[in-house]
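Here is one chain, start to finish.
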Amino acid sequence: MDHTNHVRLAGNELTAEILTGATIYGPGDEKIGTVAHLHGAGPAAQIVIDVGGFLGIGAKPVGVSVGDLDFMRDEDGDVHAVTSWTKDQLKAMPEHRDR
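Its structure:
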């Protein structure tokens, strides 16, 4: 997917309503996870990504800072993010547990 024409999201768009369910793409433009939910909003939010699994079953949740992802909208208005992390690097992170 060519991200050069995609529009970066503004800080006020980094909300659970907009980001939940967004696909995360790795450095090779492969799908590596989806946004499960957020803690907080805006630039200080923590993003919980479901990595691996099949149809959400068996996925490992990992938490990252919203600043570690580059969120944008494609030509169809769909929100997604890109990161330099690979799926294996995300899987190696500690599992996120809601408290």
